[in-house]
């Protein structure tokens, strides 16, 4: 199974950096969407998840809120949150 990840971040979010660094360490490829630079993406994110904060990571169709290494590992194993 190919791992598919998208990380929603903002310019001033230290937890976003922690999340992307963690994904790099785990050798998980991901797409980054910066909601500071793309407000429409931010609106779609809130509509989809009901959450306003970042980081929010969609990994194999599982949403992980915040910097949550355990959530990442669960999603990799195919477990839901």
From TrEMBL:
Glutaredoxin domain sequence ranges: 6-62
InterPro entries attached to this UniProt entry: Glutaredoxin, Grx-like_ET, Thioredoxin-like_sf
Protein name: Glutaredoxin family protein
Database matches in Pfam families: Glutaredoxin
Domain of life according to the entry: Bacteria
């Amino acid at each position: 199974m190919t791992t598919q990840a998208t990380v929603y971040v903002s310019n001033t979010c230290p937890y976003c950096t922690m999340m992307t660094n963690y994904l790099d360490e785990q050798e998980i490829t991901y797409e980054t969407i910066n909601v500071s630079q793309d407000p429409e993406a931010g609106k779609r994110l809130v509509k989809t998840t009901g959450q306003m904060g970042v980081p929010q990571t969609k990994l194999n169709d599982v949403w992980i809120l915040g910097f949550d290494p355990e959530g990442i590992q669960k999603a990799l194993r195919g477990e839901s949150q």
